[in-house]
Amino acid sequence: MAKQPNKTQAGTNVQQVKQQNAQAGQAQQQFGTEFASETNAQEVKQQNQQSAAKKAQASGGQNQGQQR
Q: Is the pLDDT of residue 4 over 90?
C-alpha cells in the first residue's frame, strides 16, 4: 500500500483532525473566559463563609438537642 500524504496508517486525515482540535480549543477558551469575567471572587468567598457559618450553627443546634 502506497503511503498517502496527510493520512495515518489507519486512514485518518491529519489536517482534518488538526483543524477540529483547533476549533475545539477556541470554543474552550471562549467558554472559560465568559464565566471568569462574570465571577466576583471576593463575593463568592463571602458567600462561602456565610454558608459555612449557617451550616455550623445548624449542626450545633442539632448536637445540643441530641445531648439532652
A: no
